[in-house]
Amino acid sequence: MSHRVELTKELVDSIEFESKGQRRVYDKSPELFLLIGKTKKSYMAQTVIGENGKRRTVKRCVGWHPDISPREARKRARKWTAEQQQKGAARRRGRLRMREAADRYLDFLGEVGRSKLTIESYRYAFARLDGVMGQTLASLSERPRAMVDLHKELAERHGPVAALHSLKAVRAVY
User: Are 73 and 43 a contacting pair, CB within 8 Å?
Assistant: First the structure.
């Protein structure tokens, strides 16, 4: 078990960057750790989810120091881990629909401070997917050939670059 400390602004400010590789400093709350690299200090959320009888750890950056405080990072990490647990439960039940997954992803992009242009480009990519937005993620995963057909259809209507961008958006939320 790793030693856990309460991450505070003063503590994070005092931690030096790494000359090589990365180092983790674990917060007292189990869902948050600080990842220190050569030039950045990233607040990372993590949780364990179970799918198909297997457990796996998922991680996500919830912000960077000094852009957000450790308290805000802790709050974002708790929110994200709760969402991941809900998503995992919904996915296990096969009820999470593409539209809901896309909305959650757009919200996440806003929370981590992505630019309005990035968020709008994902919004356009999802808008081109009107044929699959009502389907569950489980049903999409059962028919991988449908994605190939969807790419061909989107390429004919919107061009190959737009089709690729839309399918990358699907991959991002899945």
Answer: yes
